[in-house]
Design brief:
The chain has 251 residues and is mainly beta. It has helices spanning 168-177, 220-233, 235-238; strands at 6-11, 18-23, 36-38, 42-45, 52-59, 65-70, 80-90, 98-107, 122-128, 131-138, 141-156, 186-201, 239-241. It has a 6-stranded antiparallel barrel with strand order 5-7-8-12-11-9. The longest helix is centred in the last third of the chain and has 14 residues, at 220-233. Mean pLDDT is 86; it is low at 236-251.
Length: 251
């Protein structure tokens, strides 16, 4: 295998699920914020020919969202907005909500619009070509991260609709189970979404976790192929350690 960083990549759904190796993406993470940051560990592309709905976010009334803007185009800078908030997510392969932390970044003078003083909760569908997995480490804890680039946020408010549901669980059933199309109230283009789906102690982290599992059951031979690939590649292809790290723990 060449010295180029490669990532284990799956594509498709069900009987059409396939796997291979592709050049790894930059996870666009500030290494100084963590003791250790892995490179991209795996990637899933539901449909290489089109954008796909990757997950649903629940936006509740009066939810706290931290939003910061950097740069000023009027003074030669680049406008960048970053958002941080805690919410619930529904992934395609799950029938329940899970609590996550979400980071959004948009490089534009047009802000991300996520109103938090609506009369009802509402749902944001994140659409993109692919979704990646990586990990960060602080002390003896790994954070399991999802990374989505070049996204479209599709906001569905709970206004009366004749043909499409407006409640999170019903939207999940319609999009991911019944495979129906939908129309949103607001469409927004943003650069990246990072989702922390959980924290786990270093000694319990398993390399068997694949992004694909959030979408569908993954055949055991494919899981073994991924695990063997990780062992064969070694950390030189997938991991970088911050110069501030005090330990050298192999993920």
């Amino acid at each position: 295998m060449s010295s180029e960083r490669l990532v284990f990549a799956t594509e498709g759904f069900g009987v059409h699920l396939s796997s291979g190796f592709k050049p790894a993406h930059d996870m666009q993470t500030d290494n100084t914020s963590f003791d250790e940051v892995s490179g991209e560990l795996c990637r899933h592309t539901p449909n290489a020919a089109a954008m796909s709905s990757l997950c649903l976010l629940e936006i509740k009334q009066d939810m706290q969202i931290v939003s910061k803007c950097y740069g000023n185009p009027l003074h030669g800078g680049v406008a960048c907005q970053k958002m941080l908030f805690n919410t619930c997510i529904m992934m395609p392969g799950s029938m329940k909500k899970d609590k996550v932390q979400v980071h959004m970044c948009k490089i534009s003078s047009i802000p991300i619009i996520l109103p938090t003083h609506k009369e009802d909760d509402y749902t944001v569908v994140i659409r993109a070509k692919e979704i990646s997995h990586y990990v960060t480490r602080v002390g003896m804890l790994y954070k399991i991260m999802l990374h989505i680039e070049n996204c479209t946020l599709c906001t569905i408010y709970q206004a009366p609709r004749s043909k499409f549901p407006t409640v999170l669980q019903d939207i999940h059933q319609s999009i991911f189970v019944a495979r129906q199309s939908f129309a949103a109230d607001v469409y927004q283009q943003i650069d990246t979404v990072k989702i922390t789906i959980g924290s786990i102690s270093v000694d319990r982290y398993s390399e068997k976790f694949m992004t694909t599992m959030l979408f569908q059951a993954v055949p055991v031979p494919l899981q073994i192929k991924y695990t063997n690939a990780r062992k064969a590649q070694g950390r030189c292809l997938v991991c970088c350690v911050s110069e501030h790290a005090h330990q050298n723990i192999v993920c």
